[in-house]
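Summary for the steering committee. The consortium agreed at its last meeting that each partner would contribute one worked example illustrating the joint modelling workflow. Our contribution is presented below. We chose a case with several input lines so that the handling of multiple components could be demonstrated. No manual editing was applied between input and output; the record is shown as generated.
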Amino acid sequence: MTAVVHTWFMLGRQVRNLLRQPIWIFIILIQPLFWLLLYSQLFRRITDLPGFGATSYIEFLTPGIVIMTAFFSALWSGMAMISDLDRGVIERFLATPARRSSLVLSQVARSAITACLQTVIILGLGFLMGARVHAGIVGWLVILLAGALVAACFAGISHGIALLTRREETMIAVSNFLGLPLMFLSSTLIAFALMPGWMQWAARFNPVQWGVIAAREVVETSTDWATVGTHVAYLLAVTAVTSAFATWSFRAYRRTL
Amino acid sequence: MDAIVVEGLEKTYPKGVRALDGASFAVHPGEIFALLGPNGAGKSTTVRILATLTRPDAGSASVAGHDALADPAAVRRAIGYVPQQSGVDIEATGRENLTLQGHVQGMRGGKLRARVDELLAALGLEDAADRVVRTYSGGMRRRLDIGLGLIHEPSVLFLDEPTTGLDPEARARMWEELEQLAAAASLTVLLTTHYLEEADQLADRLAIVSRGRIVVEGTPEELKRRLQGDSVTVELGNGRVEHAESAVRALEGVREATAEANVIRARVENGGRAVPDIITGLEGRGIDVASVTISRPSLDDVYLHFTGRDFQAEDEEGTTP
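What follows is the complete predicted structure of the assembly.
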């Protein structure tokens, strides 16, 4: 219980600090807009490809952009931990009864909340551009959940790496190394059926792909709820694992003190 | 019962740096106790062990009656820790920093708000309370650091190098404030410092730390008294400092003499009686004396006496871990 309360307090601090950065707010609002406009124009003719399946690229793209945005934001989220470590904030809390887990899990929660905010913006814009979530309000909630879970999953990885390396340069290298490959090993921008066989195989193990599948399924006219359920469950499981990795890394960091 | 008891602490860092080599001391309740030593002596490591941030390889430590190794959670509730590097959140306001610190210390609602206001006033930060810390001066940040350590009215406060990085004026003001705070709250304070004047000014008792060990422990007055006599500093008008040094050392009533550049420092039984002898002795050998000063022993002399090393030289050599 104390852990939950402390996570809440720590989360309050992070959200407040983010809201104080006008540039951050501007970017999280504008960036999804850019993705949606750029990709929808760049790949407009892609639906003409034989075997693509979907007829509306914006409808195909919107859930993909939700997941992609959540994924990239979360991948970089560990930078906040490095800055807290550098500024001695973490050490100050370690000499208090603050729950150790709350220092890490609040960061994971912050990523999930940011993702939800961006999801709402993307879905709203997608709606204006003609994308409809055919599963209705439940569908919107599923997309929010999928985005939040993808963000939480990669925030766990990002913070684990941040705590193990404690260096911005390494963090940047790792994020760059993981970012584009994981995005292209998914059907974020292109239909799964059009991916080469080996990439299809690899994508099955990619949490980004799980998120894309769950989110896209509820946009389509005939939602297969079993598919949605399975992939949300995968995401829950992998998020639990990456959060555990981040807390384990935090213990490893404390042992180096 | 003592507020802090440290026995035989040993700590070697992974890279083989021996930070503590069997340090032992005790701090009485309500006193200001200083760990005085040059950079790299092991002061910060000691405080970090007492604040439950790091564990020693050997030895025991108890704080406010709780074992720092067996029951760190109880220690964390009883202590305030002000680290050497400021731990404030610079993106948040002073009030927000204090409130969050109170929350994790289990304080809530009106009681916490009242305590935050009280501390902001005591630290002279009322006007800056709702500004983000990024806009604070170094001295203001340091005061906020101390406020964060005091929010839950701890019984023991650790101050790791509280005035390092402050200009002399801010340092003097900080000394005053610390004295007032400690007196008002009947708080036990353990501070580390590499400023001899700071230990002299603030500490009821102090321990000199050198290379991971406690060299000597006592009140500043006691330690100075143990170096009986006075120090005499002689500035020479012309060279031949080695001759001068041996000449001074040979005089009656002179215990030790060291030479550095054109200055001779001597420890004598009685300064008033020794000075004429020193001057005539030197002039007799054709050495000009430019100036002579007599002083009571300082902590500099205490450090030199107990460790056999010069404090300033040691401080510049050592690296802060």
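Chain A has a mean pLDDT of 92. Residues 2-43+53-250 of chain A form one domain.
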